[in-house]
Write a structure and sequence with these properties.
With about 140 residues, the protein is mainly alpha-helical. The chain has a single domain (about 5-135), classed as Helix Hairpins (Orthogonal Bundle). The protein is about 95% helix and about 0% strand. The protein contains 2 helices and no strands. It has helices at about 5-50, 60-135. The two termini are about 40 Å apart.
Amino acid sequence: MTDHALSLLLRQRLAALDEARARLAEAVAGETTLDDQRKAIERDIQRETDTVECLDTPDALVEAFASWLRAVRAEQRVNADALRQAEERTQEARTVLAACRAAVSTVEKLLEERAAAERRIEERVAQRSLDEIKH
């Protein structure tokens, strides 16, 4: 593989790495949003539960709370499922990012090895020239 081809491959790998970083950022943002929603639901449930637990709460309010709680629990389950899926997407994005980093590293090492080999060849040629001048 020529240096040009390796340089092109490195640019492609770097572009894939940038895309993987962006996808991870999107996945983390989505997960964070869903986790914030989960926390808000939990706070709402706690606040409403505290309100209803008062000894002088009218029955109508307790019944309204029970109805509300059923709806919120359904919302909570939907959120939990979405959050699990978001966590899976984030993990997948992390895995892709790690693979992209490895690919970039491999191409960079190939380029470094190629450059080192070329330097060794140039040094040998220079040494031969010096040896010929001495003789």
